[in-house]
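[SOLVED] Need 3D model of a two-part complex

Original post:
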Amino acid sequence: MKYDVEVKISLKKGMLNPEASTIQRALALLGYEVQDTDTVNIVKFSMDEEDTNAVEKEVDDMCQRLLCNPVIHNYEIQISPMRDE
Amino acid sequence: MKYDVEVKISLKKGMLNPEASTIQRALALLGYEVQDTDTVNIVKFSMDEEDTNAVEKEVDDMCQRLLCNPVIHNYEIQISPMRDE
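Solution:
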């Protein structure tokens, strides 16, 4: 069965996020006052697997080995059966 | 009133996404077969405004001027009143 997978990757609390602070500073220079700026990356893909558990196990593996750095990143995995099949 | 804002920035359909194709190739090298890899960036912040309409107008402005390149990006704005106030 085909599954759609979404992995949300964010920096752990307390890690500096230079991308976010640059955005906040640039917005301030343009006159927009915003606070607590943060950035999150999402990686989406689809894959073939037996069931949701197998997908979850495999995607967790991918996160640990390639997609994330577990020392500095939090990740959240969302799995949904593919719609148009 | 304080609002939490989330801007989801993705490449328009048909734009090449080298980040996504590199991820897919690297996953394949590690033995994970995935398809249709795509990446999305989220910028989150909070801001003070009168009402949701005012927030939406201002954030749309920010997207056009700084956060996105309207030629190649799609963006989606999510606004929610801040919880803990």
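Edit: Chain A is about 35% helix and 40% strand.
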